[in-house]
Amino acid sequence: MPEDANAAKRTNTRPSSVRRYSSSETSRVGTLAYLAVAVLFFATAWPISKIGLEGATPIWFAAARAVLGAFASFALLGASRR
């Protein structure tokens, strides 16, 4: 068999380390857990902003929120070792 034919066969396969998930393998409970966390974050955003703005001006509150977000991002990146 010519070498080009073998190359064509190899390009259609994916490495053994790559796993493709089907829709039946995704966890419904996991999906609902992510949804619950997102709802919790969005639901608490307004009350936290309301309380935070009682003690700070909007610009200082925005700056504090940005710094807190940066620290959280660095912590997540450090935890994932990227």
Describe the 3D structure.
There is one protein chain. By secondary structure, this protein is an all-alpha fold. It has helices at 3-11, 28-55, 58-80. It is elongated, with a radius of gyration of 24 Å. The two termini are 44 Å apart.
Q: What's the quick description here?
A:
This protein is mostly helical and 82 residues long.
- What's the SSE pattern? HHH
N/C terminus separation: 44 Å
Task: Tally the beta strands.
Answer: 0
Major sheet, described briefly?
A: none
- Name the helicity range: over 70%
Low-confidence stretches: none
- Strand content of the residues, in percent? under 5%
Determine the mean pLDDT: 80
Query: What would you call the quaternary organization?
Result: single chain
- Total helical elements: 3
Helices and strands: which structural class? mainly alpha
Principal-axis shape? elongated
Output the radius of gyration: 24 Å
Secondary structure layout:
Layout: H1 3-11, H2 28-55, H3 58-80
Name the features.
mainly alpha, 3 helices, 73% helix
